[in-house]
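Can't attach files on this board, so I'm pasting raw text. These are the components:
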Amino acid sequence: MLPRPLQNFIDIFSRLPSLGPRQARRLAFHLLSLDEGTLGRVGKAVGELQKLDRCPRCFFVKEKEEKLCRICRNPKRDPRIIAIVMKETDLVSLESAGTFPGRYLILGESRIGELGTGQKLRLKHLASLIHKELGGKAAEIIVAVPPSSEGRLLMEELHPFIAPLAERVTRLAHGIPTGGEIEFADEETLKNALLGRR
Amino acid sequence: MLPRPLQNFIDIFSRLPSLGPRQARRLAFHLLSLDEGTLGRVGKAVGELQKLDRCPRCFFVKEKEEKLCRICRNPKRDPRIIAIVMKETDLVSLESAGTFPGRYLILGESRIGELGTGQKLRLKHLASLIHKELGGKAAEIIVAVPPSSEGRLLMEELHPFIAPLAERVTRLAHGIPTGGEIEFADEETLKNALLGRR
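---
Top answer:
Structure tokens for the assembled complex are below.
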């Protein structure tokens, strides 16, 4: 019933996270109501994501033409303190608290507290960085996973990999409500969680 | 903190309906996790919306290279029966019930039951079509607005414009739950609402 470009848009956007078929349809009609210039800017914003890829050091996002992401490039960030987070959005939320002096490793999401191949590769990469640059031991590794049963399982899975790599292995303080998600915590809660780490 | 193309994407998508800043951020990182081919297809799907514009007859969406939308082009649709809907998504939902034999007018959304300039222009356009093609009277105009207090206000506002233009002015039967939205009704409810119109 709908013109092909519209149906195609709805099919593609329905499959994206945080959008179902109805939201995709609404979004499509909203975009069609915009003037051509604004619609052009929306299209360009998607196209320009192709200028980005992953930081080879921490796996966060960076511009392709740059060697490392902004955090790994920043000489003021302490390379001896490393926070392991599951998702990019968790890193963004922790950064907005503004109190973390170290760097990150994005682990990637796991199936119910189990480490997959991709995650194990990233941990090996972390181990080799620590060997090359920090003489085999980081000062601290913070496992910044949520205090859910899934997070606790993941923490247990991670521990044997991480324990030999750091003087101290810590986790975020229980300022974050149990069962909650890191990316939904407010900045104050995240600040307290960082300060109270043990 | 984020690379410019990423922040730009988040800024633009945060402003779209059914997406807030957090959803836009999630969507961005999801898109970045796709391979280049898939990301390219998403960008193309947005770009191709520029091939669409409005049907000059009913104001639904059509391909630019076509003169009318698929419904207005269909000779089997009865031009003497016209449903007035507020939004394109309402038309799509009514069509999926598959029982409506007539055509449409998309009125556009109104501020709390008040007709704006754009809506009045569309009603004038409808009047001139009815004069030119149907000798001044349609067989029936169905006002397909939800049975909310807003919809009732709009129905009252519309009535003086529409009454002289049709043998019968009807509204959808109260099969649709009061306070509900047309686009959220299931197909069976919409079928009943169409059949029970009075």
